[in-house]
Specification:
Elements (H helix, E strand, L loop, with lengths): L1 E4 L3 H17 L4 E4 L6 H9 L8 E4 L1 E3 L10 H10 L6 E3 L8 H14 L4 E4 L21 E4 L2 H11 L10 E4 L2 H5 L3 E6 L5 H9 L17 E5 L10
Parallel strand pairs: 1-10, 2-3, 2-6, 3-5, 6-9, 9-10
Antiparallel strand pairs: 4-8, 7-8
Helix pairs in contact: 1-2
């Protein structure tokens, strides 16, 4: 594991973009993308760059059950608003939260990712240590599947995505599993702000623990954490 220290999210986005550019120079073809606040500065760097991404495939981590691109609160719409409408890629692949057969959708999504190995995966991290929607206790062998979100995550989704009430906030999602994620050749985790400080301390200073799903990434051969000053404030000097 490598820890890259940055001042703030803006600098973190630039560093993450530099890692992506290095990968493009080496011929990568597939990148994994998250939603949420953490990748926004990276997406801004991509959108404002003069780099041609038309040969690059993107694969997103997750989507709410019951939603697709037509839903304004969907992850598909989030990606359009923050990246895809600014930059053209070869193809953008996101789970279909409205698939008639969700089990089949998950199996096909996993198969597609296997057939198109992710060269570099960008991740955020939840305050409880979840990556994508792999909540504490998720199996290290978990693959793409439908999961029920914890109360803490539902609350975070309501606030972060502007749902009008908890009743209207999705309670389930399709997510790539921990094993699905760790198949990526390089993994870059982005963490910014005071709220991420306790979990970054656990991620970096504690043992690998199923109750901190992100900690399994420490066993990955090419795992990088980009954390700003606020997210690092509880780490030992």
């Amino acid at each position: 594991m490598e820890l890259i220290k940055v001042k703030n999210a803006t600098e973190g986005g630039k560093v993450a973009f530099d890692l992506l550019k290095d990968g493009l120079d080496q011929g990568i073809k597939t990148i994994g993308l998250p939603t949420g606040n953490s990748p926004l500065t990276l997406y801004k760097e991509i959108a404002e760059s003069n780099i041609n991404f038309e040969d690059i495939l993107t694969i997103n981590l997750d989507e709410f059950v019951g939603m697709n691109k037509s839903d304004k609160k969907s992850f598909a719409n989030f990606m359009d608003d923050n990246l895809f409408k600014f930059k053209k890629f070869r193809r953008n692949v996101i789970p279909d939260g409205r698939a008639e057969d969700l089990t089949k959708e998950c199996q096909q999504y996993e198969q597609f990712a296997d057939e198109n190995p992710i060269d570099i995966m960008f991740l955020g991290i939840g305050q409880n240590g979840h990556i994508a929607f792999n909540e504490p206790g998720s199996s290290v062998d978990s693959l793409t599947r439908v999961v029920t979100l914890t109360e803490q995550t539902v609350n975070a989704v309501e606030q972060g995505f502007g749902f009008k009430s908890l009743e209207k906030t999705p309670k389930k999602a399709i997510t790539m599993g921990i094993k699905s994620i760790t198949k990526s050749k390089k993994i870059v985790l982005l963490a910014y702000g005071d709220s991420k400080a306790p979990i970054i301390k656990k991620l970096i200073e504690s043992e690998i623990d199923a109750n901190v799903p992100a900690s399994i990434l420490r066993s990955h051969p090419d795992f990088i954490v980009i954390a700003d000053e606020k997210a690092r404030k509880l780490l030992k000097k």
